[in-house]
Amino acid sequence: MSVKACRSGSAGRSICVFDLGKTNKKLLVFDEDLRIVDSIYETFDATEKDGLYVEATEATADWLLAGLQSLASRHDIGVISIAAHGAAFACMDSGGRLALPVLSYTTDPGPDFHQAFQARFGDPRSFQARMATPDIPGLGCMAKGIYFVQTRFSQRFDDTRALLPLPQYYGFLLTGKKGIEQTYLANHTGLWNFRDGSWSEVAVALGIMDLFPAVISKPWDLLGAITPAVAEKTGLRPDTAVTVGIHDSNAALLPYLIQAKGDFVLNSTGSVCVAMHPTDTVHLSEDELGKVVFYNLSAFSQPVKTSIFLAGIEFDAYMGLLKSRHGDQPYPALDVALLEEVLAAGREFLLPSLVPFGMFPDSPARAVEDGRTYPLMEMFGGKTPSFFTDLGRTYAILNLSLAIQTQVALERAGWEEGTEIYIEGGFRKNEVYTRILASLFPNVRTTVTNLEEATAFGAALVGKAALENCSPERLADLFEIETKRVSPLNLPGLETYRAEFLRLVTMA
Q1: Does the pLDDT of residue 73 top 70, yes or no?
Q2: Which of 240, 249, 197 is nearest to 222 (CA)?
Q3: DSSP label at 247?
Q4: What does residue 480 show for φ and ψ, rounded to 5 degrees?
Q5: CA-CA-CA-CA dihedral for 174, 246, 361, 421, to nearest 10
Q6: Is residue 104 within 8 Å of residue 47, measured between CB atoms?
């Protein structure tokens, strides 16, 4: 990414982004030209007690204040912009304290709870069709999380006087003010009616609308200035502002919404691959029901059709198996002749899914070689197909699997002929994957971007817009996303291999 000269009048003050990943927490400082000039990282895992997983909110809050103190000694911070992963919420009592711990979405209350939820709000397919929210494991749907605490901890929920999504909870700790915004409320929560642009029937049935702040803000609206206590503890100037906040995937999408000239789908890659396609309509096909396909709202209130699968988790699992056999070696380079050989043979496959999630939730993870199946657990037990003896060959087969899954995810996110594909995140550096993916879309412009820390950069744009009192669209001339075209390969047999791959996963 290249940054152009800033034309605005923010008086040289910096932007601090608080990026709340599920495990990794980051504080990054951007200067007035939107360049990262400082950063602090820490890891906080959810803790387990009595089968419930709880976010480390207190430890994270202490780390946040200590980090802000450290950064304030080196930078004149004008605004703090918060981005966070989805599904988490805080129940707060009349004194502004937590009435309940913040549950991690990895908490799974068990089948009895899920059946009770379905009896009240509809079976998973009906719920997904009505709410544009899929059946995510555990408490990955905020409506489920709220229903869980209502029924499991009814007395403590009765003490709840406010519900705040995770970004706004930390914003409250910094400012003492409560707020909400649309990107978090509408991201696989079951709480938003995309057709009417209002609270959903599920939110009405839960009876929780009055517990949320009355005004739904834009992400770049100001929640308020930090409290005197925070200013004293951190050394930040008392007028340091805090934004209302933004959902992390929507933060990553924001730079592309500002810069893209036409229709596009963003393939944001990592442990979880998220395909996001801004659109004007909200519709899920019969084939998409039961898959992790849903809608969220962009920072500009536009529906974004989204699909998810666990590409990075699958990659790491199989590379762990290969490492145990071949030792710690560099990733194999692109070998076109080897790819052609695998495709011509058409007899070796690595099939999803490690967990019942994503594009093929009913397909158990396994390898297939010459028609023989090797279940995942057998492979972890040492019983692997013969192609595992060849690191380069297995790497090619793995990337074929991930690229085909990505193609399905992009199509389910609404890709159509002519829709440009952007690849950002960790997989953009994997040439085997990117060249295969481009070959699956030979008539479309597929590009990799150089946008580092995409979530944080999007949140920095939110903070910059807050400082300048303008919409982020007005910041388009401050930065460019550099892209590099991915050239498709001439791979005879790719379509035949893909068809057999899809036949195998759908016959599971």
Answers
A1: yes
A2: 240
A3: E
A4: -130, 145
A5: -150
A6: no
Residue 400: partners with Cβ closer than 8 Å, 6 or more residues away: 339, 342, 343, 350, 436, 497, 501
Q: Could you identify the residue written with the tokens 């409250």?
A: 172
- In which residue are the tokens 């080897």 written? 338
Which amino acid makes up residue 333? A
Please list the residues that pair with 228 across neighbouring strands.
none
Residue 228 buriedness (CB in 10 A; 0-12 / 13-18 / 19+) = exposed
Sequence-ordered list of residues with C-beta below 8 angstroms from that of 201, at least 6 positions apart, any chain: 130, 193
pLDDT in tens, 236-270: 999 999 999 999 999 999 999 999 989 999 999 99
Cα separation, 88 vs 91, whole angstroms: 10
**Residue 408 one-letter amino acid:** V
Distance CA 324, CA 440 (A): 31
| Residues in contact with 317: Cβ distance below 8 Å, sequence separation at least 6, in sequence order | 354, 376
- Per the CB < 8 A criterion, the answer to whether 304 and 253 are in contact is yes
Q: Is the dihedral of CA 49, 314, 305, 484 positive or negative?
A: positive
Place of tokens 């509809």: 122
| CA 272 – CA 293 distance, rounded (Å) | 13
Do 153 and 100 meet the contact criterion of CB atoms below 8 Å apart? Answer: yes
Of 1, 11, 26, 42, residue with least CA distance to 81: 26
Phi and psi at 294, nearest 5°, equal -160, -175
Tell how strand 89-92 and strand 162-165 pair up. antiparallel
**What is the per-residue pLDDT across 371-413, written as a single tens digit (0 to 9) for each?**
999 999 999 999 999 999 999 999 999 999 999 999 999 999 9
How buried is residue 224: exposed, middle or buried, by Cβ count under 10 Å (0-12/13-18/19+)?
middle
- Quickly tell me which residue has 């934004």 as its tokens: 243
Res. 133: pLDDT tops 70: yes
Q: How far apart are CA 237 and CA 228, in angstroms?
A: 9
- What CA–CA distance (Å, rounded) separates 488 from 234? 51
Token digits of residue 48? 């387990």
Six-digit token pair at 31? Answer: 């200067």
CB 167 within 8 A of CB 83: yes
